[in-house]
From TrEMBL:
This is Methylthioribose-1-phosphate isomerase. Substrate binds at R51, G52, A53, R94, Q199, N250, K251. The keyword Transferase does not apply. It is an enzyme of class 5 (isomerase). Catalyzes the interconversion of methylthioribose-1-phosphate (MTR-1-P) into methylthioribulose-1-phosphate (MTRu-1-P). Homodimer.
Amino acid sequence: MPEQFAVPRSVEWEEASVKILNQQKLPEKTEYLHLTTKEDVYDAIQTLKVRGAPAIGITAAFGLALCAQSINTSDVSAFLVELGKIKDELNQARPTAVNLSWALNRLVISAEDAKSVNEAKTNLIHEAIQIQVEDEETCRQIGQNALHLFKSGDSIMTICNAGSIATSRYGTALSPFYLAKTKDLDLHIYACETRPVLQGARLTAWELMQGGIDVTLITDSMAAHTMKEKNISAVIVGADRIARNGDTANKIGTYGLAILAKAFQIPFFIAAPLSTFDVSISCGDNIPIEERDPDEVRLINGTQIAPQEVPVFNPAFDITPHDLISGIITEKGIITDRFEEEIEALFSAEALT
Ligand code: MRU
């Protein structure tokens, strides 16, 4: 990590709490919250105080490890039953990002072989820390792999925030920009504001400026004009869940950018760790799409911008079909073609390691 990297961590383990950067309050305020109960953890994930698929998984993992410390039994089977209940509750916090269930399942598996409750409790803490440590290295590798796709002088578009604060460190879609800076490669980002809750404007613009990366903010409706006028050479975004055939759920607006990229004949890339793939799902139609509070659309920052009674449709994510995706950049390399075959091969190889 370059010395000048000044983006704070979004999640940290503290012995008696999970410390998170409150992303609801950015950019006005850099505030930290100390989550101490299952309800705190659930609320933080549900209300986007912590968000972004990998960061959601890491927070839930720390939350489960923390809550498990106060399960009061010395019987391992009874402990695992209680652990399963907490896991099931936390798993309901948000439906689309598969990193949530992926991380929680990993934690439960780490406790299953324990010979005592104390051992299980220790395993859970170690596993949650391990998930965070691995995610940082995974994101760094995604950035390295993505870097080969860009050249100095390129202007690249993104949406939402798939950056350092959405992960352990570096981010997925934003990782190559941090790495480019250390190599004196000059890349410029155009960040879409990302209505309704403005992760692009509030979070991506803020974090890239903290990290000293060149960023220009546009509203979502400026994407086509900007692609044309600013010579955008690629689009790169994150993902919340990728089906076996490469169809990808990501922040609402991503699908539209993919269609625009095709119209302008520029490559459209997804950057995501293997923990964001859900190979149990054959295609995007089977990915659950979260629908959120209509007031996120009727209000901006607490200010009413539409009639309170107007019916609202507020899907938080959309699905980009794989045939609009030029490549999925993972920590293991870039999947560019024959998505289904390549994803299957990747996961068969993973199962052997
Ligand atoms: O609703 P959010 O802010 O959690 O949505 C986040 C995204 O869509 C990100 O692109 C995705 O989770 C990847 S974060 C590395």
